[in-house]
Amino acid sequence: PVIYRADYQPPDWRVETVSLEFDLDLSATEVHATLGIVRNGDHDRAVRLDCDGALPQTLAVDGQPVNWRQEGSRIAFDVQGERAIVTLSTRIAPDTNTQLMGLFASNGMLCTQCEAEGFRRIIPFVDRPDNMSVYEVLLRADKSRFPVLLSNGALVESGDLDGGRHYARWRDPHPKPSYLFALVAGDLVATRDSFTTKSGTHVDLAIFVRAGDEGRTAHAMQALKASMAWDERVYGLEYDLPVFNIVAVSDFNMGAMENKGLNIFNSRYILADPDTATDYDYDAIEGVVAHEYFHNWSGNRVTCRDWFQLSLKEGFTVYRDQCFSADMGSEAVKRIEDVRMLRAAQFPEDAGPLAHPIRPDSYMEISNFYTSTVYNKGAEVIRMMATMAGPERFRAGCDLYFARHDGEAATCEDFVRAMEEGAGLDLGQFRRWYEQAGTPQVQARLEHDAATGTATLHLRQNFTPTPGQPAKPLMPIPLRTALIDRDMKAHRGEMLVVLTEAEQALSFTGYARAPVLSINRGFSAPVNLDVARASGDLPFLVRHDDDPFARYEALQQLVIDRLIADIADMDGPGAAQGHAVSLDEIIAVFGDLVSDQRLDDSMRAEILSLPTEAFLGEQMLIVRPEAIHVARKSLRKAIGSRLLNQWRIVHERASSVPYSLSREARGARKIKSLALGYIASAEAGDAAMVAFDQFARADNMTDRQGALAVLASMQADQRETALDSFYNRYQGNALVIDKWFSLQTGSAHPRVHEQMLELIRHKDFTLTNPNRVRALYWPFVSNQAVFHEASGRGYELLTDLVLKLDPLNPQTTARFIAPLGRWRRFDEARAAKMRDCLERILAQPGLSKDVTEQVVKSLE
Ligand code: ARG
Ligand code: ZN
């Protein structure tokens, strides 16, 4: 059952109007639909409606009952004439919907998730994004249990009914695909505000949460208003309805959903106050609120023709939310975070068995393609166009795209063409970024001729094959580049070098001394870069590059080179090759940066963080989990102990900054916990005391969690005391208890595996809440040394989860296959164990399509 992009056909019948009536109830909801359908094109084919678990109880065409037949996952019936009114009804049980797709129950409330193919679980429908309809929705429910009744668009009327029931009628004037339909019914409390658009339209804003959570919505509301203003200012795009509602739910498969006028959020991306949310949580909320709001244009007003085009809305919207967050905070820090995330999640995907282009060519289950590739690499592809065009021309390309395709279901090709015409770019070769999977490799080398004062930049691109794509044509790779004068410690201006050939050389004159190459500044292209450098160049860049990302990158590379050399040395002296700088030099660079006045604390903390073990693993052909763990730990210890006094000074200085959300105070909190981590790594005798002190005195979650994360990795009495006090303090607050689980399974404590076994049996662990499942298991599988313990028991634990969770929630389960799918990157003993686990999963009777697709591809 593989679906191919090349097979696209428009629908045979379109649904123009939809009228829905719901009699809502947790265990038995009745749905009646009236569909105005139109034959699409000159054909005599039957009407076919997608259907998943909700077969029609009644079905009539123009008032006459008709016989329908089942064809796989569709129902079919014949209609004469060009148009008809189809009426049908279903009966569904939201409280047994553990998949959380379609209409489901969460803590006594009812809500929907329809993207990508959830609407068909409510009623049979032309459930594809190129079918756009105008919706009217009538909701009826018990008034005391469901006092709030919401759907898309605007409320038209509401009132009481007999038997303690009430109703609300909603109408959305904008034609939309079914994946943007939403309804919510429950006992919820609203925080209200308003926004006036630049053309003067008043918009009522509301965020609905469970009673007791209303004190934690202010930041999300602030982010919403800032997003609305930003989209007007930066893209000229205004909101288009009189109401914008947001609802927070605690059982949700993903982050949030951009339903027209009624965004539904995982509560973790709405609820925040200083006592329960970290600065990082605050940023995530701001970013996701913006992301969903921006979808109103990039996604809803212009939607996707088919799901292969998903990156059209997701890549673009991620790019938009990244730029928004950069504007709200620090551009440099935001860029580093985004690149770190891309490298942690997307590069491995691109290098493994599940690699796919940002516009895939085929899929079995579309839910498996809400990937870091489609989202984050998709955003990088948009960013490259923006870089090549410059801000004004990029905006002109976007303007043309929105003007030309407003109200349409468009394709990635439509976007590229609008960008070509509007921005005046030739994107002929660039289209390959949509077609090819895999991370390009770029080699760079600067050659210097002292006699002529010429510096020549040699560039070369290479590709490794990915599944189904053995050979790859050349890509255009835009590299922001500068040549930094060694004496002046400055450059003559940054250039954009676009590498379009297999090999290219560019010469620059007037360099008596060889300059230092600063390339892929700002991470202008999502590539793996290999620069041939003289030793000493990286420390120079760390100290003097004016591009903050390039400084960060130089230090990361310096550390990676050293660690890779240390790991090679474990095989015997002299095994290490290359020109890694000495430990002394690394300590000296760190020492400079700890007190560098040009850095703000947030950037300082970013630069001074060591690459994760998993990221180091990615740099090796065959990952060596123990060696990486040992080498990184010993480098951390050296940096901690040899700079101990400096870390103590920083920690004390930062501890004296009072809590606020100012940039300075946030930076202080970030460097504070980083310094604490190094103090602990130094194994300073008082480290546990210092950490416990930070924990006990904390008046905010950032400091408290920062200290607890350090304690969780220590073998000290204070560890249990702090974990228990944290648990007791926040018992009943699901989002914070999630943190309590994650801190333990993501720690570097020697007994994480045993703790994991206890936590699986903990009374607060449940398989039915995706946040809780991810909180427990995701840090565990990302904890490389633990998950990849040679015994293989980490793999077994994950396999047990997959087998238990799949029958309940295939979509969330399928996300856990990729870690096992990386078996080719491990030694034969581990690889065999990982493959065994994949085989054990595949042998499970009734395995979901979601998990099957990922496992089969991982074994191929
Ligand atoms: N469109 C949503 C967003 O990115 C995510 C929907 C995810 N759907 C899914 N089936 N995984 O904002
Ligand atoms: Zn999105």
From TrEMBL:
Alphabetical list of SUPFAM superfamilies matching this protein: Leukotriene A4 hydrolase N-terminal domain (SSF63737), Metalloproteases ('zincins'), catalytic domain (SSF55486)
One Pfam family from the record: DUF3458_C
Cofactors (names): Zn(2+)
Span of domain Peptidase M1 alanyl aminopeptidase Ig-like fold: 438-530
Location of the Aminopeptidase N-like N-terminal domain: 86-180
GO biological process: proteolysis
Peptidase M1 membrane alanine aminopeptidase domain sequence ranges: 220-433
Every Peptidase M1 alanyl aminopeptidase C-terminal domain range: 537-860
Catalysed reaction equations from the record: Release of an N-terminal amino acid, Xaa-|-Yaa- from a peptide, amide or arylamide. Xaa is preferably Ala, but may be most amino acids including Pro (slow action). When a terminal hydrophobic residue is followed by a prolyl residue, the two may be released as an intact Xaa-Pro dipeptide
Enzyme Commission number(s): 3.4.11.2
One annotated GO molecular function: metallopeptidase activity
Keywords for the protein's UniProt record, in alphabetical order: Aminopeptidase, Hydrolase, Metal-binding, Metalloprotease, Protease, Zinc
Family: Belongs to the peptidase M1 family.
Official protein name in the record: Aminopeptidase N
Organism of origin: Sphingomonas ursincola
